[in-house]
Amino acid sequence: MYVAVKGGERAIDNAHAWLAEERRGDTGVAELSIAQIREQLALSVARVMAEGSLYDPDLAALAIKQARGDLIEAVFLIRAYRTTLPRFGASNPIETAAMVCDRRISATFKDLPGGQILGPTFDYTHRLLDFALAAEGLDPAPAPQVAAPDGALPHVTDFLAREDLIQPEADGPATPRDLTREPLDFPADRPLRLQALTRGDEGFVLSMAYSTQRGYGRTHPFVGELRIGTVAVEMEIPELGFAIELGEVVLTECETVNQFMGSKTEPPQFTRGYGLVFGQSERKAISMALVDRSLRWEELGEDNVGAPAQDQEFVLYHADNVQATGFLEHIKLPHYVDFQSELELIRRLRAEALGDQAREAAE
Predict the structure, then answer these.
(1) Model's pTM, two decimal places?
(2) H helices present in 214-305, as ranges
């Protein structure tokens, strides 16, 4: 932080006080509680948890409140707090096939074991402002109670795999690199790329995914399955010799099915794109799956057509909104010395140029 300017520290303290006053707003209006943000702004909470790499709805709600609704600032707060937490170990890989689904749809197969579950979605709304929401204190009509499907719900891609119509997933490293503890370097393997996309800015990842649909990346995806629900998190305890359940998290998972014309060593079959994020965040999960598939061009033996979404360094470096924000906003801070040096350089060059013009005119 820049405090070298005379009076700078006092000015910063005053700015902090003014920020706190603006954050609170009109004291005649009831203050938002953490519980209200957590329960009624759940999609914003989910985004902050995903891009902040920390699953804690209460902390995400607190960060949103502190940031005055600026979600990137809230992500920054969560990431900064995350660095202070001790790490006790790593959980086991989650079993999304055992997810208790609130929503599960497929654009490739109509009839699925367990059925299509529309769940809570904006997909079928008319996008008209509901002025009834302005009448505070009105509770919504209760949703009909639907029994959850019994047993695990298999993934749609499993059906294709039985006929060998989709490329099997290659085994990744036993212990993938952890992007929250190691710097991003290249070339990045798929587990590292998926971590970066999960933490990436939703708007940026969406734009990259959209570019692939418009031809910049040569992907033609189908949503094989999109599911949202609760999954148990387990951890092996060495002293016990078995895994125990630590808790549950809400996740959104998307698998896309993409065309693949085959290569010299692989027959024609479908390939996959994959997205997994905290909370209900289907736009991000679908976008992530599209970009993941586009970044796999080399391992699948496809041509690089020069699309931005095929360039892993371009995508992964620019997806991180905290890093991008820091680099962008630092130019607001004092750069007096740098500017003065450039100002003197421009003055000298102008003087030399004008002198040359004057001499040419005199000749």
Answers:
(1) 0.85
(2) 282-295
